[in-house]
Recover the amino acids of this structure.
């Protein structure tokens, strides 16, 4: 592949330093790809033409003067539009924030800028990250580069589609119940959710604070590692940010899986999994075994309740987190006779149906008389999930599951059935409840040519081990197929 | 029927930390509206709270001063309700695991001493301030509202008493003593008029001897100790009338109207929000170790009750001790006492003339231009006879007005008493010469009456500076000589 838009970060980093490629040229390639594909894919809500150009120039100046801030310098990266960017419109795909230009940068944005990255623009998502398809965006659905009739997954669907199609080399997503890993899986790219607290949430528009974590979406496991290194670390602006010393995330990456115990979670790889996904999953298990890993079937009984617990905890937290959108200080405001009417009218008009559904669900779950039965009970399940994982990690070094029970579904297929949509996150939700890291690596395609992801879960702060297994999976899969749209011919077709 | 009054008081105190509770914005007053704000205290999307450790420490200080237990693992919760001046539409507060629980405060009233239980002391954030435009005063009926968020996020400490208070006087004594403790700790300026200290009272009546509590009414908007006492007195009368007439008390919030001298119904509890408390996921549990508690305890200052006991032991009477502590005059007293002034004398000046000056001028006791050394000097001058008590008051006024030290003022104002017998002899002789015939004889015969009159004449001829004791002796001496 000669188009720089298809480079991994690692490839681009070499090219940028060998003087074959400038950051401005690399940005140009990504922009051309966006120009060719956006009409079909709609990965972006906002493209920061001037800002990106200035950053690319600055990166080239830095290279010219011998200043090198590491592997992200000059790399075009996209941001999910729920991360605030100073002066650049940020909407979280909601009408209620239409036209809002934040006065500050999220910590991850500052870190990316400090690392010399070029921020291309803001990508589409399900409104306030609530959804699994981007169909809940107030600004239109993003499309899957492998089949534009299908969804890219969600909620970080725009980020995953941009990376898959080549309108960014990497992107940041946020993962509350699988919102990085599931779209990565459906778009055939790598998506990683770090241990809770490793990446600052300051400036991430909160969906469910105790579950939200920002993570990278990239074209390779190595690239995910590079981005994570760029954005992680303690942030005094986030009280839940991890204060200890960070592990060396890449320290084990080339060691292979020989001698490792890999646990297969039976509850998350059986019933409800599409045959093609199950077959692809088993094939990878055999390869891992062939590479010297010991495969063990394990049970995590509490995961049967994880989805229910998640759909109480996340809405409960969101019901409070989204209370600030009231028309008083920023964003949309509709008039009313009283303050209450103004707030009510603003919220009714500004929020989409899924957001309203979850606010109502969460408000109910926290109400006097229902708290113990719903929210309180869900917190107990969360504790059980954490305990189950602890026990599982006494028997296995890492756990594996398919990332999503199905490949990309068609636009509109599940919009009338929220429960079916919620099931998309069955395999990804438990690690949000436990706060542990997990990564989705593409391993193959189904009969329709749609990508299938393989998920590796590890204990908290065991990212080095997680990357080690993920790298082995990537090597064993040898998956280098690109979506047909990710080329000038594909786009023209 | 005889009704027993049951009162509990919730006290909110704004802490005077350098920065707000969850962000770095300054805690200050008089700034232009919406200038001390940032994404965090404005509740902008994506912003996160970071707790102010000093505010947490200060809350624990009050807890320790009230003999509370400090909770080892306490939590912040979200209290959810919509209000235009609350940026996030939830308040970060504490719920079932507050920082401090189970203390007490001893108060003294005209009927004696009582121990009032403290249920809890916890920490939360203040809201912004709304100004309603146009008529009506309430949002719904006014022409709009302006919101200033400078106050939003200021650390707010809440102390909740047990329903142990039985009279409005006791309620006032409790509030006063709590304020004195807070001032002694130096964690707030606790100004009632400016709202940096605010009281809400829960009050109910029950038949004398009943175990069950009556239906309670929450009374708000009492901006002074006096209005706290007045509002509760009014509310007792109101509730007694209803109950005596066979009526039922409505559970509601009532607002004290200072001018009208009555409480008026506000939002009823039935309509009140369900706050849907849940633990704040943006913050981690507060873990307080024994060492931290021991450290804070060792740094506690002398508390008002201890100060009063110490003053009384030094010879100050109980009432004066209370005025000194309540008036913030203990440090001046201590300096004066240390500089050799007698305790009752120093207390007399401070609770008398100085307190009158403070009340008259509305000045801050901490900013007085009178230090203890100067007070001791003034007292010494009176004792030495250099100043008459009337002159001493004028000197004090000069000192408080910034004219200099006592001697300097006394000299500048020419108030030093004439005690030189030679100089006074001439004045006495002059007066005796012009005295009415037979005056000297009357004195000689033991009649005291004319002496006072003659002293007055000498005083006026010396411009009030003569030492009256010496003048008296001279008059008697001269009369008997002749």
């Amino acid at each position: 592949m000669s188009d720089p838009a298809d480079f991994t970060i690692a490839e681009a980093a070499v090219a940028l330093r060998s003087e074959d490629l400038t950051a401005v040229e690399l940005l140009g390639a990504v922009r051309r790809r966006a120009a060719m594909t956006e009409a079909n894919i709609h990965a972006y809500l906002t493209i920061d033409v001037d800002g990106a150009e200035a950053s690319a120039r600055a990166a080239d100046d830095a290279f010219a003067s011998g200043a090198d801030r590491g592997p992200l310098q000059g790399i075009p990266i996209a941001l999910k539009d729920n991360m605030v960017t100073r002066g650049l419109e940020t909407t979280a795909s909601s009408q209620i924030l239409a036209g809002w230009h934040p006065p500050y940068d999220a910590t991850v944005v500052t870190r990316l800028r400090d690392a010399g990255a070029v921020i291309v623009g803001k990508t589409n998502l399900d409104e306030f990250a609530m959804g699994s398809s981007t169909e809940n965006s107030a600004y239109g659905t993003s499309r899957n580069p492998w089949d534009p009739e299908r969804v890219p997954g969600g909620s970080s669907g725009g980020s995953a589609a941009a990376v898959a199609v080549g309108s960014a080399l990497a992107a940041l997503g946020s993962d509350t119940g699988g919102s990085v890993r599931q779209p990565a899986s459906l778009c055939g790219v790598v998506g990683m959710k770090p241990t809770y607290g490793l990446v600052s949430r300051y400036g991430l528009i909160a969906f469910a604070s105790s579950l939200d974590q920002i993570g990278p979406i990239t074209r390779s496991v190595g690239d995910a590692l590079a981005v994570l290194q760029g954005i992680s670390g303690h942030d005094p602006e986030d009280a839940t940010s991890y204060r200890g010393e960070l592990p060396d995330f890449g320290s084990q990456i080339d060691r292979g899986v020989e001698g490792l115990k890999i646990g297969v979670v039976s509850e998350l790889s059986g019933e409800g999994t599409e045959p093609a996904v199950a077959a692809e999953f088993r094939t990878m298990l055999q390869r891992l075994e062939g590479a010297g890993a010991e495969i063990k079937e394990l049970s995590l009984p509490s995961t049967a309740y994880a989805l229910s617990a998640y759909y109480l905890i996340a809405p409960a937290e969101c019901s409070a987190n989204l209370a600030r959108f009231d028309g008083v200080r920023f964003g949309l405001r509709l008039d009313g006779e009283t303050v209450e009417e103004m707030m009510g009218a603003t919220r009714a008009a500004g929020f989409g149906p899924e957001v309203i559904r979850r606010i109502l669900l969460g408000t109910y779950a926290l109400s006097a008389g229902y708290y113990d039965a719903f929210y309180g009970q869900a917190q107990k399940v969360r504790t059980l999930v954490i305990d189950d994982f602890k026990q599982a990690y006494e028997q296995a070094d890492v756990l594996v599951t398919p990332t999503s029970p199905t490949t990309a579904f068609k636009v509109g297929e599940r919009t009338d059935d929220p429960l079916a949509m919620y099931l998309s996150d069955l395999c990804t939700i438990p690690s949000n409840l436990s706060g542990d890291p997990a990564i989705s690596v593409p391993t193959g395609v189904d009969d329709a040519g749609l990508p299938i992801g393989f998920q590796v879960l590890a204990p908290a702060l065991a990212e080095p081990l997680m990357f080690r297994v993920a790298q082995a999976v990537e090597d064993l899969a040898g998956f280098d197929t690109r979506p047909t749209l990710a080329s000038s011919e594909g786009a023209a077709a | 029927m005889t009704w027993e009054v049951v009162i509990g008081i919730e006290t909110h105190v704004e802490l005077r930390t350098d920065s707000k509770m969850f962000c770095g914005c300054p805690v200050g007053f008089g700034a232009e509206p919406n200038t001390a704000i940032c994404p965090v205290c404005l509740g902008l999307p994506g912003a996160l709270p970071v707790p102010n450790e000093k505010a947490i420490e200060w809350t624990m200080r009050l807890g320790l001063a009230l003999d509370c237990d400090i909770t080892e693992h306490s939590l912040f919760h979200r209290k959810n309700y919509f209000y235009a001046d609350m940026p996030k539409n939830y308040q970060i507060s504490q719920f079932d695991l507050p920082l401090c629980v189970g203390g007490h405060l001893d108060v003294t009233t005209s009927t004696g001493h009582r121990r009032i239980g403290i249920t809890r002391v916890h920490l939360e954030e203040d809201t912004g301030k709304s100004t309603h435009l146009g008529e009506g005063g309430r949002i719904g009926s006014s022409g709009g509202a302006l919101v200033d968020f400078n106050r939003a996020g200021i650390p707010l400490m809440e102390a909740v008493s047990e329903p142990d208070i039985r009279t409005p006087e006791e309620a006032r004594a409790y509030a006063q003593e709590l304020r004195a403790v807070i001032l002694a700790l130096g964690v707030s300026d606790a100004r009632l008029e400016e709202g940096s200290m605010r009281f809400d009272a829960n009050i109910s009546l029950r038949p004398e001897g009943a175990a069950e509590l009556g239906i309670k009414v929450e009374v708000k908007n009492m901006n002074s100790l006096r209005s706290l006492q007045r509002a509760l007195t009014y509310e007792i009368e109101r509730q007694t009338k209803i109950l005596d007439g066979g009526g039922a008390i409505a559970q509601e919030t009532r607002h004290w109207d200072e001018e009208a001298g009555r409480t008026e119904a506000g939002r009823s509890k039935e309509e009140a929000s369900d706050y849907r408390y849940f633990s704040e996921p943006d913050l981690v549990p507060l873990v307080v170790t024994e060492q931290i508690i021991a450290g804070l305890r060792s740094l506690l200052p002398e508390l008002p009750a201890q100060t009063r006991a110490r003053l009384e032991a030094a010879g100050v009477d109980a009432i004066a001790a209370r005025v000194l502590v309540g008036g913030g005059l203990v440090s001046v007293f201590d300096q004066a006492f240390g500089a050799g002034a007698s305790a009752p004398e120093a207390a007399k000046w401070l609770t008398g003339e100085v307190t009158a000056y403070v009340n008259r001028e509305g000045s801050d006791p901490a900013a007085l231009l009178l230090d203890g050394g100067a007070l001791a000097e003034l007292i010494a001058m009176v004792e030495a006879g250099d100043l008459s008590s009337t002159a001493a008051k004028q000197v004090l006024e000069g000192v408080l007005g910034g004219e200099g030290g006592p001697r300097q003022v006394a000299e500048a104002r020419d108030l030093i008493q004439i005690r030189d017998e030679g100089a006074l002899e001439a004045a006495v002789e002059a007066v005796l010469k012009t005295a009415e015939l037979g005056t000297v004889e009357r004195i000689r015969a033991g009649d005291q009456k004319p002496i006072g009159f003659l002293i007055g004449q000498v005083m006026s001829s010396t411009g009030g500076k003569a030492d009256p004791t010496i003048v008296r002796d001279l008059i008697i001496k001269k009369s008997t000589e002749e």
DSSP finds 16 helices and eleven strands in chain A. Chain A touches chain B through 46 residues (CB under 8 Å).
